[in-house]
Amino acid sequence: MKAAIISDVHSNLEALQAVEKSMEDLGVDEVHFVGDAVGYGPDPGNCIRWIMDNTSMMVMGNHDSAAAGLMGPGSFNPNAKAALVWNIGQMEEQELDFLRSLPMRQSEGDVTLVHANPMDPGGWNYIFSLWDAEMNFPFFEGSFCFVGHSHQAVVVAMDPQGSVNVVSGNGFSIEEGHRYLVNVGSVGQPRDGNPSACFGLLDTERGQFSFIRTPYDFSQTQRKMMEAGLPKPLIDRLAEGR
Q1: How do residues 116-130 score in pLDDT, each as one tens digit?
Q2: What one-character-per-residue DSSP string does 204-222 give?
Q3: Are 145 and 112 spatial neighbours (Cβ–Cβ below 8 Å)?
């Protein structure tokens, strides 16, 4: 079984469509969504509806929560807040209802999904360090916990003795007795210096996980953002992957 794990779409339809084509080419069987359908970009409604129609497991992100009125935007910087307010104005009630319905975490079999971290999903704290990651392993069961939020793809593994380390490279072979905390990066706004959309691919038959980078025409997204009057720093960063 091949499962794609996507996160932080952020209303970027062009990136999502490119990822959809990549998933088709890879023969993906199901798609899991790790939060933040909206915010920043110009196509909130279309991105929400794609997620509604195509994902089998899904959780809420902080931008989704704020758009749905479940939290205030006070923690957002001015550019993010301005884009979120604009996004809310473009959404239909059915789409807002969908965002309100999303769980904070979801587990099925060996997989747990949560947007920020499993220790305190609603606190929206980032996992930035190896210490942060180690503190979160006791708060999920099974072999895999997939997160997003930081927009930076990284894997931390815990071996059977409880030691943790960062797994380098673009993927890994699944080792018996190991557990994995995986940030799958961002579809709609990567922040690792690479503007290509990023998602994760879990292949349980082959016992492998891979990060997939998918180029897309970000100039189309930038053009729509400019036409919508969205903040210029959000437009510029798409070309720079930051």
Answers
A1: 999 999 999 999 999
A2: TTTTEEEEEEE---HHHHH
A3: yes
Instruction: Sheet containing 171-173: give its strands across.
Output: 57-58, 30-33, 2-6, 197-203, 208-214, 171-173
What is the residue extent of each domain of the chain?
2-240
CATH superfamily placement of domain 2-240? Metallo-dependent phosphatases (3.60.21.10)
pLDDT at 166: 94
What is the separation of C-alpha 28 from the centre of its chain, rounded to a whole number of angstroms?
17
Report the amino acid identity of residue 143: S
Other CB atoms within 10 Å distance of the CB of residue 170:
11
CB-CB contact of 134 with 125 (8 Å): no
Q: What are the tens digits of pLDDT across the range 88-119?
A: 999 999 999 999 999 999 999 999 999 999 99
